[in-house]
């Protein structure tokens, strides 16, 4: 004996669920974004604490038919630490680029929270 199941999706209803910030799906995504921010702050390397304190969440914002959240590290050197690049000037005024060990605290936090 076989069983057949047919699933029909109402695309318009799904889009309304994902675009309305008060619906369940965006609330769950927002909660995970906040967890990602907290985890990124925990994973960020600390020297003075400026990098860690600059991490914040921006959103939700509408981006066409979608909602968008961003977790941002707001200091200028955040990408150098995250990606492992350093730029500095020597006595000649030239910019020297050196590869340092990367510490991808944002990517790691995103992977841990969203899997």
From TrEMBL:
- The identity of this protein, by name, is HK97 gp10 family phage protein
Organism (species): Planomonospora corallina
